Amino acid sequence: MCTAIVSVDPASPVPVLLVGVRDEFLARAWEPPGRHWPDRPRLLGGRDLQAGGTWLAVDPGARRAATVLNGRGPLAPADRRRSRGDLP
Prior knowledge:
This is NRDE family protein. The chain is mainly β. It has a domain of about 55 residues. It contains no helices and six strands. The strands form two sheets. Strands 3-4-5-6 form a four-stranded antiparallel β-sheet, with no helix packed on it. It has a two-stranded antiparallel sheet with strand order 1-2. It is globular, with a radius of gyration of 14 Å.
């Protein structure tokens, strides 16, 4: 993912708007935002069908969000690298 946009307006009917563009692997299979993880029933996010996780999710009850953006610096050793779809 290269772009994340966050809008916070407590007075709005949609107090937090979180948008992400996952554009580096257009053919990678995914499911649209939903509650895909039974062990985390409050978590909302798109689901990566290759790794089973997400690249962008929000937990409204905890008032937290997480996203994966482009990394910088040296790569981890191949046996320790995690997929961008590994969140949560």
